[in-house]
Amino acid sequence: MNSSQNLRPVLPLRRRSLIAWPLAAVASPALAQFRVEISGVGATQLPIAALKFRDEEKAPQPVGAIVRADLERSGLFRNVDGSGTVVDETSQPSMPEWRGRNADALVAGSVSRLADGRFDVRYRLWDVVKGADLGGQSYAVPAADLRLAAHRIADAVYERLTGEKGVFSTRIAYVTKGGGRHTLWVTDADGEGGQSALVSPEPIISPAWSPDGRELAYVSFEKRKAVVYVQDVGSGKRRTIADFRGSNSAPAWSPDGSQMALTLSREGGSQLYLMSRDGSNVRRFTQSGAIDTEATWSPDGKHIYFVSDRGGGPQIYRQAVSGGGAERITFGGSYNISPAVSPDGRLLAYISRDGGAFRLQVVELAGGTPRTLGNTADDESPSFAPNSRLIIYATRDGGRDVLMTTTADGRIKARLVATQADVREPVWGPFGR
Amino acid sequence: MNTLNRHHTPALALVVALVLAGCASGVKLDETPPVETRTPGAGSGAGAAGSGTSQSGVAAVDLTGKTDASAVGKIVYFDFDSFVVKDEYRGIVEGHAKMLAANRSKRVVIEGHADERGGREYNLALGQKRAEAVGRSLALLGVQDSQLESVSYGEERPAVTGSDEAAWAKNRRAELRDR
Hints:
The complex is a heterodimer of chains A (about 425) and B (about 180).
Chain A lengths: L33 E6 L6 E5 L12 H11 L3 E3 L15 H6 L4 E9 L5 E9 L4 E10 L4 H17 L8 E8 L2 E8 L6 E6 L3 E6 L5 E6 L6 E6 L5 E5 L5 E6 L5 E6 L6 E6 L6 E2 L7 E6 L5 E6 L6 E6 L5 E3 L7 E6 L5 E8 L2 E8 L6 E2 L7 E5 L5 E8 L2 E8 L5 E6 L3 E7 L5
Chain B lengths: L26 E2 L32 E2 L11 E4 L12 H13 L5 E6 L6 H21 L7 E7 L10 H7 L1 E6 L1
Parallel strand pairs in B: 4-5
Antiparallel strand pairs in B: 3-6, 4-6
């Protein structure tokens, strides 16, 4: 952690979100847009007491509860009951007491209002087993970033205790359909704090985060055809990237954010093209008489994975950006689509049709047998978290579309159950908000 | 996004800014609590004091109220996994071809659709294939390419909701709409 004060220019305020933040009290689980249900038990779960932060009820967001839920959703932590005690980051808690409560770690903190109206959120983490104070941090944030501060604390705890980078402060985007409207949502990775980026009477599909997390590309049918737009998330400014003759879809950003791959029908059929991020310099990438679509880049930017039915049915292929032919990647089954490559380049996730069921699969790109991750039958649209450890996807449960996250090994799943309209097309945003 | 804005430093008497992104997050607890002294109105919008410069803001774009309620056009239905314009739809195709051949300034959009089974983007491409099949039939009957645009809605605009063959059959279609 950085010990020196980091001086960084303060960002000028962008257009404020149109969602009114609740002014009072704790948001109870019943009010949560998404209820989280977890299944599967990890090999080891670290018991942790993540306590209510002192005075969190006086702030618009229950910081301690958010930290607790984040850690639990990862599947790597089991929450220990810490009620009945008042601990904050200045306390000197009794380690024997917490060992007695079977906690291996303890997180506590406070939330205070600053003179300028922002909130000062502080936490400290203790290793109860070793009896060690692992330190803490403070964050000064506007009310709108209280959830973010809680997620950053959960990330810090997660990283300190597991050695891996947490994704709690990342965002996801997804689409809902209901009441004659289609909405593109941006939420925290826990599904909370949802804000709508686009509301339309016509369908929205295939959202894609830019690598810097500031923009979303998507396909909108507002012109009664598929057109690709790029929208700045903070300002709402939109630009048209592809509105060529016919359908324009499946936008995919290159890892450095300078290029996009997409599917265009401007020369007939559905073929892959590359273009600069501003829509210029369009050049054709695939030349087949078949359907080529759903491009996604390898993390090193050198290959594009895509779906093609040039062999009869849709399968996943890979082609070098620098040129050359396509190499077939999937061989099992007659219908394999929606490739997603993990950011560490190790894994390929995709959807495979098996009988009438569509199931999420993961395979190691270095070679191996594909493994079915889901126990559901209508999986769609897999997307990796930026730490490569989790996958979010859409599926159907009880007659409605829901979002699920799973660990990449398939063992721990969390269902983000939408209490509103059908949800689909989730995409996980990058690190570094 | 205007990247220049990122480097504007508002005129502040005391600048202690927090980095909430990347690897350096927050300030260590032992240091003085950060307080920002702000020049009123410097760089901020209509937010109240304390709303500050959020990293969580999402601006909403609302397109509702811009509905274009067009009448349903003529429909050609397709068999499963097929992109062949069947004989029973010859009449519709020929009727349109005559109209378009007689009037070169008239245009038609062919909207292709797929049933709900399978992936969205692949179904978008299947719908495109159906639209283009009808387009080719029209072209063979003398309609000029410039009078046609083939587009697809994939599975996004079903004519009939339902998860059985009866519904699916009604959704595998191409609709001809006069422009």
